[in-house]
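assembly run, all chains below
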Amino acid sequence: MGLGNFTRVATDYRFFASFGHVMLYLIQWLVVLLVLVLTLALMLHGRMRRTTKVLRFLYYLPGAFAGAVSVLIWTILLDPAASPAGGLLQAFGWASSNEVLQRDHLPTIFMLIAFWAGAGSWIVIMYGALNGVPLEVIEAARIDGANTWQIAFRIQIPLLRRWIAYMLILGFAGGMQVFVEPQMLQNVAGRSWSPNQLSYSFAFGAADLNGAAAIAVYLMVISLACAMLVVFKARLFEKE
Amino acid sequence: MSSTLVRPAAPAVDARPPSRKRRRPDLSVVGARVAWLIVAGVFVFFFAVPILWMVLAPTRTDHDLVVGSPIAFGSWENLKTTWEHVYNFQSHAIVTWMKNSAIYGIGSTAIAVVTAIPAGYALAMMKFRARKLLLTVTLVVMLMPAATMVLPLYLEMDASGLDGTVWAVILPTAFYPFGTYLAYTYYVGSLPDELLDSARIDGANEWQTFWRIGLPLGRPVIALVMFLEFVHSWNSFFLPYVMLPSNDQAPTQVGLSTLLSASVLFNPAAGVSEVGRPEIALAALISSLPVLIVFILSQRSLVEGMTSGATKG
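ok done. output:
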């Protein structure tokens, strides 16, 4: 009764480990998402816009293979024996699939998969939002002697604030609830790598639905708190 | 800000003076261009090569994929063999998976559109009590990560006797607050109140104004909600994984995980099986085809729909 379920799951030895895994993954995922999506969107917007239509499409296409499909494909692509990037993997000193798919590598591997499948639509969206930045403003800055970097950091990125905030919220929420990736790679990840996996194990492995629900509440509180923080920081839903 | 962020007209897009580069053939300009090409090219490889690999792998044998060059075309004969292996897996399970995914996708998309569009319209265009409250609740629920709801939803379905039926997947998936939010921002930004007022003066009731004006003018946002909801439903894994444990109810995403565990590559305990790399690639490709088609058709409307919501919201 009371808060018993919350303390009970929190003292489970797998609880903090699973949140730790997800945090490691989230840090990499959000940094890479933020930096590369903005870099690529600004790059594609800055030059040869007609030709970059093809590039945008190619970046966007992997989104059609999100979820279980991307995990399937990448488990093969990360096998040095069969991968098109086998040479690169071997350069890191990994000779076999087992050496790449190690527990310690999982946060980075999941980041790679998520970026492959998820970055393209954000690049397309940011590109679309960049079209909304008035050209006169950029021309005026250029006449005043601002270079490409200054225009990007002082004008374009601040005007994309809402979209960046929104991307980070969705990236964070999606990352917190990672399930399909570790569940499919159970041989490496085990059954309690992420909090959602642990929650699933509680519910269907140990028939402990109360414990499972307690983890769900923890996840929800954390995600909502972070979302609110970003929403108010970026004034996402204010009408200006 | 909403007035300054309006998208400029199409011809203005490439307004950079083209002569500028030629006048000053600066070393740093050349360097920047080379760096641009390298970075853009590296990411083309990163994003496109896995897809190319997936398309070519089914035409080859598993052995050939390991021994030969990773990117190459095999033969049509191999493709046929690969297909037979995939098709015969668990007596044509892939057909069942595709059928299930289609039912869940179409069912939840239909319900999501029928509920989210009128809801967004009403929040944007009509005045009623608790409108602000409903809008805030929509925004909060929108930010709530869906997967944390899966187990509570399971209990709910269990209590209502719907667990194990298709509704246990369709109804929670169709619940789509982001669709309502998109419809809301769209109508706020692009449907002038005066238009509705004149219709009301002409004697149309609220239902008629929505049906005759709101719906036809809402076509872009309807398309966007349909696209996002269908893709969301097709790609969802956790919810059907929990709700529908039996294999003949599994959608493709869940089915693919059984395919993976039947392969010796990832599960040494699987024993002798016909599931190798080419089979996995082909199954992955087939099960993504509907989403792929929707994706190719909707790249444009994605940007237009999302950013029109952004700039006008």
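The radius of gyration of chain A is 21 Å.

The mean pLDDT of chain A is 86.

not gonna interpret more than that til we talk
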